[in-house]
Automatic annotation (TrEMBL):
This is Glycosyl transferase, family 2. It comes from the Archaea. InterPro entries: Glyco_TIGR04440, Nucleotide-diphossugar_trans. It comes from Methanocorpusculum labreanum (strain ATCC 43576 / DSM 4855 / Z).
Amino acid sequence: MMREPDFVDECYADKDLSLLKKLTLVIPTYNRNYYLSRCLWYHAHFPFGEIIVADSSPEEKKVVNRETVAKVREMFGANVRYLAYEPETEKYGGDIYRKWGDAVQHVETEYSQICTDKEFQIVTTLCKCIHYLESHLDYTVAGGGRYHLEFRQKRSYTLTSFAGTIVDKDGWKRLQQFISSSGFTLLSIHRSKKHKEIYLNMICNNQDDLRFGEVYLDLLDVIFGKIYNILDLAITYRDQLTFNQTNSFSQKNQESSSFRYQVIWAYPNSEFDSKWTDFKNGIRESLFQEFPDDLCDIEHNLEPLLQHWLNIRLTRPNPIRKPLRIIYQICPDSLKLFFQKVFIQRLNPKKYFPIDENNPEVKLICQIIETFQWV
């Protein structure tokens, strides 16, 4: 089926995106037909080497997703591979990252990136990241700013959290730098060979937990290689609240893993202790294997460092957090901006900014979020 150029094509008409042929996007999805269709429709405009859909939805949802994949292949001529998995059933979500890891093992291109089904990649930034990795062979991960689009009466705000570039030759020192900079690499571009090794390491070291697993994968990235981040460019925009056709705003999707699974601070003590032990032992063994000369320093300092990082990254509850959140939610936008500047940016590594309405790539994504209908 021939397709007429649309506003996405027009936005990127003068851009050289040929480096995307070296990248595979892995899109995990669960029970969200609409978000997957929108995600595939957007990314199929671009010349990715391959797009892999890792679908663990119930069977009736899988039927719809297979139809979507077939339609995208026909409409765009996109190279989309569909992988089916059993629905996730484990109490602590360990099967989620095993699904991700299995999908990554299917990657055939030089680079790979996880892209969740509510996200939009900024393809010009992806090309810059790939170009950097092509010319800096000692780096294994590259990324940029990750922004969450939060719509309020068609006005948008963004937040981002990412590490700076981590360049030390010693992985133990890189780990310390990464934690001090509040980093995040899970959804960045990876060299596929290392990406596969990291997920295999996770499985071999008994990481069967969604929350600990997220942090574990980030830290392995830093242990195994240098990290490059383009500090002034966004790599991903994520739809946090969706504007719908009735001019109202939907709540965050309850099928998100953020809502389906407990936070670690709510685990029974015995369960937390067991998973914490597996987590720190896996990180320790990975460090020992890579950097045996740092063994004494690692043994002495690793545990308090990891405890500190979990408290920050997985947000240990604060007794005043809930009442402050309620007050914040009912404030007018002007007061929210004040609170963001005075409190949130000082107390939280995430930063909040007004959206740049003059950025054509962001305007394009906002337009898709507000108007997309799969025909």
